[in-house]
Amino acid sequence: MGWLDGQVAIVTGAASGIGKTAAETFVAEGARVLLADIDNDGIGALIGQLGHNYADGAVTDIRDESAVQDMVAQAVRRFGRLDIAFNNAGIGGFSPIQNYPLADFERVVGICLTGTFLCIKHEAAAFIAQRRGGSVINIASLNAIQATEGFAAYCSAKAGVAMLTKVAALELGRHGIRVNAIGPGLIHTPATAGMTALPGLEDAFIQEAPIGRAGEPEDVAKLATYLASDDASLMTGQTLYIDGGASLKKYPELFRFFGT
């Protein structure tokens, strides 16, 4: 018996990193999963790994409302229901504020915040139509509460995700829908590989984490699985920071490492 036996999940940003590991963990715990990403090849490879009985895929740009609506409809059509939504897709960006290109700023906010809103909107509509409740899990970040040099767009967007999570939980609880978020610190993924490759930067992160290590995608996936499960039935409106305690200290001074 798995924590998620018989349930159906959507995972965005599923082709790599945290999303891929979450999809693998959900399936291992008994769920079937709709994998959404802009990386068609990555989706195909993961479907091949998990098996067509347990996974389906949708190429989805979460900034496109019609694509998000189609993603949710496909999950329900393919697997007959929807129980869990793991809204993980996101991107980063780096620039001093005075030089930040508007298009780059808007792209980060559009994917991380507006895209998450669109996912919640259409996932919630599906949950309400089913009258069975559901669990929404959004990926925020340590940067929702910890300011960081060069991260004006990302910090703003992820702080928005944390507040969006609260508002959605407040509105949707009457429908039996729980909405929570996870705020990872430094996690080893393809998306963070460029940062951790800079000499000394990962050590600087670890020095600010009382636990003394960076995280792995499995750390986040296990927390997401708990939040998706009935064991978390009283949990809603929360952002849980999984950061090795880094939120107790401070973020490394990135301008020093990037030569800004």
What is the mean predicted local confidence, pLDDT? 97
DSSP summary, beta strand count: 7
Radius of gyration: 18 Å
Termini separation: 52 Å
Please write the CATH class name.
Alpha Beta
Coarse morphology: globular
Quote the beta fraction. 5-15%
Low-confidence stretches: none
Query: What is the third-level CATH name, the topology?
Result: Rossmann fold
Architecture (CATH level 2) name: 3-Layer(aba) Sandwich
Sheet with the most strands, sense and barrel status: 7 strands, parallel
Helical content band: 40-55%
Write out the CATH superfamily name. Answer: NAD(P)-binding Rossmann-like Domain
Query: What's the number of helices?
Result: 9
What structural category characterises the helix and strand content? alpha/beta
Following the backbone from N to C, one meets helices and strands in this order, namely EHEHEHEHEHEHHHEH
Domain count, please report it.
1
What would you say this structure looks like, in words?
The protein has 260 residues and is α/β, with parallel strands linked by helices. It has nine helices and seven strands; from the N terminus they run E-H-E-H-E-H-E-H-E-H-E-H-H-H-E-H. It has a single domain (8-258), classed as Rossmann fold, CATH 3.40.50. Strands 3-2-1-4-5-6-7 form a seven-stranded parallel beta sheet, sandwiched between helices. Helix 2 links the parallel strand 2 (32-37) and strand 3. It is globular.
